[in-house]
Amino acid sequence: MNLAHPLTQAPPQLPAQHLLAQLERLASCDRTAEYACITARHQHGARSVDVTQPTLAILLQGRKQVHGATRSLEFAPGDVFLMARRCRLDVVNLPDPASGIYLSLTIPLCDGAIQTARMAWVDPIRRDGDDIAKFDNLDLSEELQRWASALQAGQLAEARIALAAVVIALCRRGQTSLLAPHSPSLAMQVRDTVAAQPDREWTSRDFETMLGMSGATLRRHLVAEHTTLRDVIASARLGCALTLLYTTRWPIKTVAAKVGYRSVSSFTKRFSDRYGMGPSEIGNAETA
Protein backbone atom coordinates (compact mmCIF):
# COMPACT_ATOMS: atom_id res chain seq x y z
CA MET A 1 0.00 0.00 0.00
CA ASN A 2 1.46 3.32 -1.03
CA LEU A 3 0.85 5.85 1.75
CA ALA A 4 2.08 9.43 1.67
CA HIS A 5 4.30 10.43 4.56
CA PRO A 6 2.19 12.14 7.27
CA LEU A 7 4.26 15.30 7.03
CA THR A 8 3.38 15.68 3.36
CA GLN A 9 -0.37 15.35 3.84
CA ALA A 10 -2.43 18.52 3.80
CA PRO A 11 -3.82 19.35 7.25
CA PRO A 12 -7.58 18.91 7.61
CA GLN A 13 -9.57 22.08 7.17
CA LEU A 14 -11.34 23.56 10.15
CA PRO A 15 -15.12 23.99 9.74
CA ALA A 16 -14.78 27.75 9.20
CA GLN A 17 -12.02 27.28 6.61
CA HIS A 18 -14.02 24.60 4.80
CA LEU A 19 -17.07 26.85 4.58
CA LEU A 20 -15.08 29.82 3.30
CA ALA A 21 -13.36 27.63 0.69
CA GLN A 22 -16.78 26.37 -0.40
CA LEU A 23 -18.13 29.92 -0.69
CA GLU A 24 -15.02 31.00 -2.63
CA ARG A 25 -15.80 28.28 -5.16
CA LEU A 26 -19.34 29.60 -5.50
CA ALA A 27 -17.96 33.11 -5.98
CA SER A 28 -15.92 31.90 -8.95
CA CYS A 29 -19.07 30.68 -10.72
CA ASP A 30 -21.41 32.74 -12.85
CA ARG A 31 -23.76 34.99 -10.90
CA THR A 32 -27.21 33.55 -10.35
CA ALA A 33 -30.46 34.76 -8.83
CA GLU A 34 -29.56 32.79 -5.69
CA TYR A 35 -26.57 34.99 -4.79
CA ALA A 36 -24.23 37.65 -6.13
CA CYS A 37 -20.45 37.93 -6.08
CA ILE A 38 -19.49 41.49 -5.07
CA THR A 39 -15.98 42.56 -6.05
CA ALA A 40 -13.96 45.77 -6.01
CA ARG A 41 -10.39 46.53 -7.00
CA HIS A 42 -10.07 49.99 -5.46
CA GLN A 43 -10.69 51.14 -1.91
CA HIS A 44 -13.82 53.26 -1.94
CA GLY A 45 -16.69 54.56 0.13
CA ALA A 46 -20.31 54.89 -0.94
CA ARG A 47 -22.93 56.84 0.95
CA SER A 48 -26.67 56.23 1.15
CA VAL A 49 -26.66 52.74 -0.38
CA ASP A 50 -30.19 51.34 -0.42
CA VAL A 51 -30.73 47.77 0.78
CA THR A 52 -34.01 46.78 -0.85
CA GLN A 53 -34.65 43.41 0.84
CA PRO A 54 -33.32 41.29 3.72
CA THR A 55 -29.86 40.14 2.69
CA LEU A 56 -26.99 38.09 4.11
CA ALA A 57 -23.40 38.79 3.06
CA ILE A 58 -20.24 36.81 3.84
CA LEU A 59 -16.94 38.66 3.53
CA LEU A 60 -14.31 36.54 1.77
CA GLN A 61 -11.46 38.96 1.01
CA GLY A 62 -10.64 42.45 2.22
CA ARG A 63 -12.43 44.45 4.89
CA LYS A 64 -15.68 46.35 5.18
CA GLN A 65 -16.99 49.22 7.30
CA VAL A 66 -20.72 49.88 7.55
CA HIS A 67 -22.55 52.80 9.12
CA GLY A 68 -26.30 52.44 9.60
CA ALA A 69 -28.98 54.51 11.28
CA THR A 70 -28.38 53.03 14.73
CA ARG A 71 -24.95 51.38 14.70
CA SER A 72 -21.62 50.97 12.91
CA LEU A 73 -19.88 47.66 12.22
CA GLU A 74 -16.54 46.45 10.83
CA PHE A 75 -16.08 43.15 9.00
CA ALA A 76 -13.10 40.89 8.26
CA PRO A 77 -12.94 37.70 6.16
CA GLY A 78 -15.24 35.07 7.61
CA ASP A 79 -17.66 37.56 9.15
CA VAL A 80 -21.33 37.36 8.24
CA PHE A 81 -23.29 40.58 7.71
CA LEU A 82 -27.06 40.58 8.06
CA MET A 83 -29.17 43.39 6.63
CA ALA A 84 -32.46 42.48 8.28
CA ARG A 85 -34.78 44.84 6.41
CA ARG A 86 -34.85 47.62 3.87
CA CYS A 87 -32.44 50.30 5.02
CA ARG A 88 -29.90 52.86 3.84
CA LEU A 89 -26.20 52.47 4.67
CA ASP A 90 -22.87 54.21 4.24
CA VAL A 91 -20.15 51.66 3.37
CA VAL A 92 -16.39 51.53 2.90
CA ASN A 93 -14.87 48.53 1.08
CA LEU A 94 -11.14 47.85 1.33
CA PRO A 95 -9.45 45.27 -0.94
CA ASP A 96 -7.12 42.70 0.55
CA PRO A 97 -3.52 44.05 0.31
CA ALA A 98 -2.19 40.72 -0.97
CA SER A 99 -4.77 39.94 -3.66
CA GLY A 100 -5.86 43.49 -4.44
CA ILE A 101 -9.48 42.29 -4.35
CA TYR A 102 -12.46 43.00 -2.16
CA LEU A 103 -14.78 39.99 -2.36
CA SER A 104 -18.05 39.14 -0.67
CA LEU A 105 -20.94 36.83 -1.39
CA THR A 106 -24.39 38.34 -0.91
CA ILE A 107 -27.45 36.12 -0.47
CA PRO A 108 -30.91 37.68 -0.83
CA LEU A 109 -33.25 36.24 1.79
CA CYS A 110 -36.09 35.81 -0.68
CA ASP A 111 -39.79 35.91 0.18
CA GLY A 112 -40.08 32.14 -0.31
CA ALA A 113 -37.36 31.37 2.25
CA ILE A 114 -38.82 33.81 4.76
CA GLN A 115 -42.36 32.49 4.29
CA THR A 116 -41.15 28.91 4.78
CA ALA A 117 -39.29 29.91 7.93
CA ARG A 118 -42.33 31.84 9.17
CA MET A 119 -44.56 28.75 8.82
CA ALA A 120 -42.05 26.64 10.77
CA TRP A 121 -41.47 29.19 13.55
CA VAL A 122 -43.60 28.65 16.67
CA ASP A 123 -42.20 31.25 19.10
CA PRO A 124 -43.32 34.90 19.32
CA ILE A 125 -42.13 37.19 16.52
CA ARG A 126 -40.57 40.42 17.74
CA ARG A 127 -40.33 43.35 15.38
CA ASP A 128 -37.54 45.18 17.21
CA GLY A 129 -33.82 44.83 16.59
CA ASP A 130 -31.22 46.64 14.54
CA ASP A 131 -31.31 46.94 10.78
CA ILE A 132 -27.82 45.42 10.59
CA ALA A 133 -26.03 42.72 12.59
CA LYS A 134 -22.73 40.84 12.59
CA PHE A 135 -22.11 37.11 13.13
CA ASP A 136 -19.18 34.73 12.96
CA ASN A 137 -19.60 32.26 10.11
CA LEU A 138 -19.39 29.41 12.64
CA ASP A 139 -22.74 30.61 14.01
CA LEU A 140 -24.36 29.59 10.72
CA SER A 141 -21.82 27.14 9.30
CA GLU A 142 -24.04 24.06 9.24
CA GLU A 143 -26.94 25.81 7.49
CA LEU A 144 -24.71 27.72 5.06
CA GLN A 145 -22.80 24.57 4.13
CA ARG A 146 -26.08 22.81 3.30
CA TRP A 147 -27.11 25.78 1.17
CA ALA A 148 -23.77 25.97 -0.67
CA SER A 149 -23.58 22.19 -1.21
CA ALA A 150 -27.09 22.11 -2.67
CA LEU A 151 -26.25 24.93 -5.08
CA GLN A 152 -23.01 23.25 -6.17
CA ALA A 153 -25.02 20.10 -6.88
CA GLY A 154 -27.57 22.08 -8.91
CA GLN A 155 -30.34 21.28 -6.41
CA LEU A 156 -32.23 24.58 -6.31
CA ALA A 157 -35.22 23.29 -4.33
CA GLU A 158 -32.92 21.89 -1.64
CA ALA A 159 -30.90 25.13 -1.65
CA ARG A 160 -34.03 27.19 -0.98
CA ILE A 161 -35.05 24.88 1.86
CA ALA A 162 -31.54 25.28 3.28
CA LEU A 163 -31.89 29.05 2.99
CA ALA A 164 -35.09 28.87 5.08
CA ALA A 165 -33.02 27.00 7.68
CA VAL A 166 -30.51 29.88 7.58
CA VAL A 167 -33.38 32.30 8.32
CA ILE A 168 -34.53 30.14 11.26
CA ALA A 169 -30.95 30.04 12.60
CA LEU A 170 -30.84 33.84 12.45
CA CYS A 171 -34.17 34.03 14.27
CA ARG A 172 -32.75 31.84 17.04
CA ARG A 173 -30.08 34.51 17.43
CA GLY A 174 -32.60 37.28 18.02
CA GLN A 175 -33.46 38.26 14.44
CA THR A 176 -37.16 37.31 14.42
CA SER A 177 -38.00 40.67 12.85
CA LEU A 178 -37.06 38.89 9.61
CA LEU A 179 -40.35 37.01 9.91
CA ALA A 180 -42.55 40.04 10.57
CA PRO A 181 -44.70 40.91 7.53
CA HIS A 182 -43.89 44.33 6.08
CA SER A 183 -46.16 46.28 3.78
CA PRO A 184 -44.08 48.06 1.13
CA SER A 185 -44.61 51.77 0.76
CA LEU A 186 -45.76 53.21 -2.56
CA ALA A 187 -42.23 54.45 -3.23
CA MET A 188 -40.88 50.93 -2.61
CA GLN A 189 -43.42 49.45 -5.03
CA VAL A 190 -42.44 51.96 -7.71
CA ARG A 191 -38.73 51.39 -7.05
CA ASP A 192 -39.04 47.61 -7.33
CA THR A 193 -40.97 47.96 -10.60
CA VAL A 194 -38.32 50.22 -12.12
CA ALA A 195 -35.50 47.98 -10.89
CA ALA A 196 -36.98 45.08 -12.89
CA GLN A 197 -36.59 47.13 -16.13
CA PRO A 198 -34.19 50.01 -15.40
CA ASP A 199 -33.59 50.84 -19.07
CA ARG A 200 -37.28 51.45 -19.82
CA GLU A 201 -38.52 54.99 -20.42
CA TRP A 202 -40.83 55.15 -17.43
CA THR A 203 -43.63 57.73 -17.28
CA SER A 204 -46.15 58.71 -14.64
CA ARG A 205 -48.89 57.15 -16.77
CA ASP A 206 -47.20 53.74 -16.49
CA PHE A 207 -47.55 53.78 -12.72
CA GLU A 208 -51.01 55.33 -12.77
CA THR A 209 -52.17 52.36 -14.86
CA MET A 210 -50.34 49.76 -12.76
CA LEU A 211 -51.50 51.16 -9.43
CA GLY A 212 -54.98 52.22 -10.48
CA MET A 213 -54.68 55.83 -9.33
CA SER A 214 -54.59 59.26 -10.89
CA GLY A 215 -51.39 61.20 -11.41
CA ALA A 216 -52.41 63.69 -8.71
CA THR A 217 -53.03 60.88 -6.21
CA LEU A 218 -49.72 59.22 -7.09
CA ARG A 219 -47.83 62.48 -6.55
CA ARG A 220 -49.67 63.21 -3.29
CA HIS A 221 -48.83 59.79 -1.84
CA LEU A 222 -45.17 60.11 -2.83
CA VAL A 223 -44.95 63.59 -1.30
CA ALA A 224 -46.36 62.10 1.92
CA GLU A 225 -43.43 59.64 1.78
CA HIS A 226 -41.02 62.58 1.32
CA THR A 227 -40.07 61.79 -2.27
CA THR A 228 -41.06 62.31 -5.91
CA LEU A 229 -41.57 59.98 -8.85
CA ARG A 230 -38.46 61.34 -10.57
CA ASP A 231 -36.33 60.71 -7.48
CA VAL A 232 -37.65 57.17 -7.02
CA ILE A 233 -36.97 56.27 -10.66
CA ALA A 234 -33.45 57.75 -10.48
CA SER A 235 -32.72 55.94 -7.21
CA ALA A 236 -33.82 52.60 -8.66
CA ARG A 237 -31.71 53.04 -11.80
CA LEU A 238 -28.62 54.09 -9.88
CA GLY A 239 -29.07 51.19 -7.45
CA CYS A 240 -29.08 48.80 -10.40
CA ALA A 241 -25.97 50.53 -11.76
CA LEU A 242 -24.16 50.09 -8.45
CA THR A 243 -24.95 46.37 -8.49
CA LEU A 244 -23.69 46.01 -12.07
CA LEU A 245 -20.47 47.86 -11.23
CA TYR A 246 -19.86 45.40 -8.38
CA THR A 247 -20.83 42.20 -10.22
CA THR A 248 -19.53 42.70 -13.79
CA ARG A 249 -16.46 44.03 -15.60
CA TRP A 250 -18.60 46.02 -18.03
CA PRO A 251 -17.36 49.43 -19.21
CA ILE A 252 -19.12 52.34 -17.56
CA LYS A 253 -20.85 53.32 -20.80
CA THR A 254 -22.38 49.82 -20.98
CA VAL A 255 -23.61 50.05 -17.38
CA ALA A 256 -25.06 53.49 -18.08
CA ALA A 257 -26.98 52.17 -21.09
CA LYS A 258 -28.23 49.14 -19.17
CA VAL A 259 -29.90 51.39 -16.58
CA GLY A 260 -31.43 53.87 -18.99
CA TYR A 261 -28.80 56.60 -19.40
CA ARG A 262 -27.82 57.58 -22.94
CA SER A 263 -25.17 60.03 -21.78
CA VAL A 264 -22.18 58.69 -19.82
CA SER A 265 -21.42 62.15 -18.44
CA SER A 266 -24.98 62.56 -17.17
CA PHE A 267 -24.86 59.09 -15.63
CA THR A 268 -21.50 59.76 -13.96
CA LYS A 269 -22.72 63.05 -12.48
CA ARG A 270 -25.93 61.56 -11.11
CA PHE A 271 -24.09 58.52 -9.76
CA SER A 272 -21.49 60.73 -8.04
CA ASP A 273 -24.18 63.00 -6.58
CA ARG A 274 -26.04 59.96 -5.26
CA TYR A 275 -23.19 57.92 -3.76
CA GLY A 276 -20.42 60.46 -3.17
CA MET A 277 -18.03 58.60 -5.48
CA GLY A 278 -17.58 58.16 -9.21
CA PRO A 279 -18.53 54.87 -10.93
CA SER A 280 -14.87 54.24 -11.79
CA GLU A 281 -13.82 54.24 -8.12
CA ILE A 282 -14.95 50.64 -7.61
CA GLY A 283 -12.25 49.68 -10.09
CA ASN A 284 -13.94 46.78 -11.91
CA ALA A 285 -14.92 48.44 -15.17
CA GLU A 286 -12.81 47.46 -18.17
CA THR A 287 -12.16 50.07 -20.80
CA ALA A 288 -14.21 49.73 -23.97
UniProtKB/TrEMBL annotation:
Sorted UniProt keywords: DNA-binding, Transcription, Transcription regulation
Domain of life of the organism encoding this protein: Bacteria
GO cellular component: cytosol
Extent of the signal sequence: none
GO molecular function, one term: transcription cis-regulatory region binding
Pfam families from the UniProt entry: HTH_18 (PF12833)
Coiled coil: none
Domain HTH araC/xylS-type: 188-285
InterPro entries named in the record: Homeodomain-like_sf, HTH_AraC
Protein name stated in the entry: Helix-turn-helix protein
Organism expressing this protein natively: Solilutibacter silvestris
Lineage of the species this protein comes from: Bacteria, Pseudomonadati, Pseudomonadota, Gammaproteobacteria, Lysobacterales
